[in-house]
Amino acid sequence: MKIVTIIGARPQIIKAAGLSRIIHEHYADRIREVIVHTGQHYDENMSQVFINELGIPQPDYNLHVGSASHGIQTARMIEGIERILLDEKPDYIVLYGDTNSTLAGAVAASKIQVPIVHIEAGLRSFNKSMPEEINRIVCDHCSTLLFTPTLAGFENLAREGFKTDNDGPYNIDNPKVFHCGDIMYDNSLYFSTVADQKVDVLKRLDLEGKPFVLTTLHRNNNTDDKLRLNSIVEAVMELSKETVVVLPLHPRTRKMINQLLDEDKVVRLFHTDNIIITDPVSFLEMIQLEKHASLVMTDSGGVQKESYFFKKPCVILRPETEWVEIVKTGAATLVDADQDKILQTCRHYLQQPPVNFPEVFGDGHAAEFMLEQMTQCHNDKTPD
Ligand code: UD1
Ligand code: UDP
Q1: 164 shares its domain with 221
Q2: Global confidence as pTM
Q3: Positions of the chain with pLDDT lower than 70, given as ranges
Q4: 156 and 18, same structural domain?
Q5: Ligand 1, atom 26: closest residue by C-alpha
Q6: Catalytically annotated residue among 179, 218, 250, 292
Q7: Is 365 a catalytic residue?
Q8: Would you say residue 6 lies in a domain?
Q9: Which residues have any ligand 2 atom within 6 Å of their CB?
Q10: The domain containing residue 121 runs over which residues?
Q11: Distances (CA, A) of 280 to 46, 219, 253
Q12: Residue 195 falls within a domain, yes or no?
């Protein structure tokens, strides 16, 4: 069986490590994985660092599309992916998540009838102004095998008309939907031990013995809106009077802080003792930070979940989330970009950390389950 895996943005590269590892360990004689990097993310610390650190095979192709408007970026990817699919003739294309690289893979593959496997299917924010919401809806509805990380994702697909009995031969008109748990849970469990052996970010950032809040920020509606960006930065500066705040900065956020905020505020932000601003860190460093933080504050999908995996409270800098389960348990709270709400919720969690983290992301073996289903479906279809 041959699969083409599309990676491009940081979280996809990390997710892909979960499947590649199990292919390498258990399916090396049966599955050939061809990896295509779209080049959506290209800085060393947004891309290559993960390939090196997480043992992902070097991509077979890199389309080097780089940054551009959604239309231009996606169009370049579609063109490149179509060419590769026609040459490679895979049995499946594997798409992760909801980025423009996911969308491009879905459009290219569905037009030439390459079956799509969508990993992290079914998630919805019910907010179509998010570029990711459009990407995930399109990808789900072009897919043939859909793997949902949570029950909420599974139920969303059922509501959208997907049959979930998985009867009959599968094809794009009769897709199969499986609830299997989250591949990022697999990764976090696996790499958590590796992280302790290989990196020491607490030492590197002079955080040993210090309580700290870990923050990430990159959603376009936060970074590109001056009022929202300013409100979140003000909250960070206020919070830093009470605790250390660590902020590994996405390149988009660094650019927009410099572009949109007053110069004196930017100077204060970058020169406040209790605010540690760094370039993006590696995944091993990130999970080490998550494990040791008192609290996580983020607008990232991945980081929200990881805070839950490591039993940390999470302040979500968004009006809604696809990961509804973590809010329902009380371990995470939606605060949007509201400065007062951010501060109140942080203080509340710092004083009374939640203790209830029921298992909602599977058993840490989602990748094994997905590969079993993929090979089973492929064998059912292929005559002896
Ligand atoms: C993208 C995804 C988003 C995901 C995020 C993960 C889409 C529509 N968005 O958002 O869903 O959560 O990745 O991080 O696909 N840049 C660099 N170097 C890089 C990459 C980006 O400097 O290596 C800067 C460029 O100025 C670029 C900007 O970041 O214009 C935004 O990059 P882009 O990939 O378009 O979107 P993200 O905000 O990263
Ligand atoms: N991450 C990382 N280094 C960082 C910030 C994030 O390794 O400096 C990891 C994080 O642990 C998670 C993933 O990147 O696994 C999340 O990606 P991101 O926040 O960029 O995108 P999203 O999940 O929101 O799509």
Answers
A1: no
A2: 0.98
A3: 382-384
A4: yes
A5: 252
A6: 218
A7: no
A8: yes
A9: 10-11, 14, 216, 218, 248, 280-283, 286, 300-303, 306
A10: 2-182+362-379
A11: 7, 15, 11
A12: no
